[in-house]
Write a structure and sequence with these properties.
The protein has helices spanning 5-9, 12-16, 22-30, 32-49, 51-54, 57-66, 167-176, and strands at 72-74, 76-81, 92-98, 103-111, 114-120, 127-129, 135-137, 140-145, 153-157, 160-164. The chain is an alpha+beta fold. It has two domains: 2-66; 72-176, no CATH class. The strands form two sheets. The chain has a six-stranded antiparallel beta sheet with strand order 2-3-4-5-8-7, with helices on one face. It has a four-stranded mixed beta sheet with strand order 1-10-9-6, with no helix packed on it. β9 (153-157) and β10 form a beta hairpin. The protein is rod-shaped and about 80 Å long.
């Protein structure tokens, strides 16, 4: 009977939808391989029918990656505090970054192993996302950037995402558009 499997393969979908003929149903009932295949089809179909309820977290994350991204804004340097010059990197740098309605005072501190970036989050459910680890402590966050080019991150709140560029880019933007 196993050689018959190919013949029934296309009819399995019909069986799933309750439109199978008696011959197919009989074959599947007696054939472990087709029973497995039917179970696989059923699982696949239910995953597509309810992707947000039944898909595992990593599948959801991958699907979200394929979807059009949320509105994204790019923050700029609002006020350089204690910033000596665009090319000088002091041990402690404080800058205010943001855009029209969100801003935060960013502290960047030089460490042996890189730069600690920290700030108080704006009010209203914001969090920080970046390629590496971020520590959220109450309304504050901090992370260790391996170098200045890694000091950028995303400020995320619901559907809104604000990109905070790394310090060198913030400084460069500032020197290109002084106002
Ligand atoms: Zn079979």
């Amino acid at each position: 009977m196993r050689t018959d499997c190919a013949r029934f393969e296309e009819r399995l979908a019909d069986l799933l939808e309750g439109r199978a003929d008696a011959e197919t149903a009989q074959h599947v009932a007696a054939c472990p391989a087709c029973t497995d295949e039917l179970a696989r089809l059923r699982a696949m179909r239910s995953a597509f029918a309810h992707p947000w309820e039944s898909a595992p977290a990593d599948v959801i994350a991958r699907l979200k990656g394929l979807m059009p991204s949320a509105p994204r804004r790019v923050a700029r340097l609002l006020s350089p505090l204690g910033l000596v010059g665009a090319r000088t990197v002091a041990d402690d740098i404080q800058v205010v970054v943001g855009d029209r309605d969100v801003s935060l005072r960013l502290m960047v501190r030089r460490q042996d192993e890189g730069y600690t970036v920290m700030a108080r989050l704006p009010e209203g459910g914001w969090r920080v996302e970046r390629g590496g680890e971020v520590e959220h402590i109450g309304d504050r966050f901090r992370f260790l950037a391996e170098d200045l080019d890694a000091t950028g991150f995303d400020l995320v709140c619901d559907d809104l995402r604000i990109e905070i560029p790394p310090l060198p880019r913030l400084m460069q933007d500032e020197s290109e558009h002084p106002d």
